[in-house]
From TrEMBL:
Keywords: Sigma factor, Transcription, Transcription regulation. Belongs to the sigma-70 factor family. ECF subfamily. It comes from the Bacteria. This is RNA polymerase, sigma subunit, ECF family.
């Protein structure tokens, strides 16, 4: 096996096994710091050992075993003081936490990261780090904040979890409704990072993150089958994931929805997503944000050709969404649909009203660039494309925006 193959195997193992290793160690040792540090040391050991010894037949098992040894070594180093000895003894002798309805280490980890005692931005950073396996730099880029800010949030979160003795478990049935909304918000962010990765040195689409977010959302849906927003989020993820293989060209360029080969979409995922949407509509309960987003995606994936899209229904759903959440990003997405229904000039007027709130958001400038291009205002369109390229972090999206800009006359 070549050195490049080994590096690829390590990268793949990090994508696929990081959360599993951290979760397994957290369950055993009850300490997020120990779990994360030992997992990182195990991957560092893989970088040294695998080029010499070869990639093991079961990389996940090798990494978990190595991480366990690293964690035990760390605890032994710390047990030189009597109080640390007692603490370590408690770690080994304490009875395990109840497993709950579903025995899944990573599901327990996401609920631990998303405990309501933590601020939402802290939950997001911690979950993306421990469950998503993103680096501090990647998280900082995704949320346009400094790396040291993200690092401080993660450090404080782990300290608070330890000091408050926040349990590593899935909440009881009585506690689930109060806890699940924060978990869903974080799972969507994990999914979105996989759907459109922000790191310049990562794959533009990270299937490991989207697959893990879907897996965890499925488990929560099994716990709460009648919760409309859980079903809505699962449907949204499935209908989005169904288009994954059609989203990036062979040359590594993002392919927008209207230009995708719909024959390459995953019909099984689409059918499941549509079924979930229909079930929620039949329930007759006012939909929440995830159910509306799922319904919008259901309209898109129902059209055999982009020209068959029911844009009036899409706009009507966005109108409902705006009443629920009048955020500028929702208004921007609505304007994209308005452009198809009422024309680019009407949409541009709506987009320009968002300038002061979305000036640092690349999708705002990309949307303006496209609308200006359609109106024949090439000079202004080029400037908007330049700003979008400057702000975008996804390599496939940058390639697409660059080509569109360079096609301007």
């Amino acid at each position: 096996m070549s050195a490049a193959d080994v590096r690829a195997a390590i990268t793949r193992a990090h994508h696929e096994e990081w959360a599993r290793v951290v979760a397994a160690l957290t369950r055993r040792f009850g300490d997020l710091d120990i779990a994360e540090e030992a997992a990182a040391e195990a991957f560092a050991a893989a970088v040294v050992r695998w080029p010499e010894d070869g990639v093991p037949p079961n990389p996940g098992a090798w990494l978990t075993t190595t991480a366990n040894r690293k964690a035990i070594d760390q605890i032994r180093r710390e047990t030189k003081r009597a109080d640390k000895q007692k603490e370590a003894q408690l770690l080994y002798d304490a009875p395990p936490e109840p497993l709950g309805a579903i025995d899944d280490d990573r599901l327990r980890l996401i609920f631990t990261c998303c405990h309501p005692a933590l601020a939402m931005e802290t939950r997001v950073a911690l979950a993306l780090r421990l469950v998503g396996g993103l680096t501090v730099a990647e998280i900082a880029r995704a949320f346009l904040v400094r790396e040291n800010t993200v690092g401080q949030r993660i450090t404080r979160a782990k300290a608070k979890i330890k000091a408050a003795r926040i349990p590593y478990r899935v909440p009881t049935a009585e506690d689930l409704p109060a806890r699940v909304s924060g978990v869903l918000a974080v799972l969507l962010l994990v999914f979105n990072e996989g759907y459109l990765a922000t790191g310049p040195d990562t794959d533009p689409v990270r299937h490991d993150l989207t697959a893990e977010a879907i897996r965890l959302t499925r488990l929560i849906h099994a716990l709460m089958p009648d919760d409309g927003e859980v079903a809505g989020l699962l449907a949204l993820m499935l209908l989005t994931e169904a288009r994954r293989t059609a989203r990036v060209s062979a040359s590594g360029e993002l392919i927008p929805l209207g230009e995708q080969d719909r024959g390459a979409w995953d019909t099984t995922l689409i059918a499941e997503g549509h079924r979930l949407v229909r079930e929620r509509v039949a329930a007759g309960v006012a939909p929440g944000r995830y159910q509306i987003l799922a319904a919008i995606n259901a309209v898109h994936t129902s059209a055999r050709d982009v020209r068959d899209t029911d844009w009036s229904q899409v706009v009507a759903l966005y109108d409902r969404f705006v009443r629920l959440d009048p955020s500028p990003i929702i208004a921007l997405n609505r304007a994209v649909a308005v452009a198809e229904l009422d024309g680019p000039e009407v949409a541009l007027a709506a987009v320009d009203r968002l300038d002061d709130r979305l000036a640092g958001y690349h999708a705002y400038h990309a949307t303006r660039a496209d609308l200006l291009r359609r109106l024949g205002r090439s000079h202004m369109s080029r400037a908007a494309y330049d700003r979008a390229i400057e702000l975008a972090g996804n390599t496939a999206e940058i390639a697409y925006l660059t080509r569109r800009r360079d096609q301007l006359r």
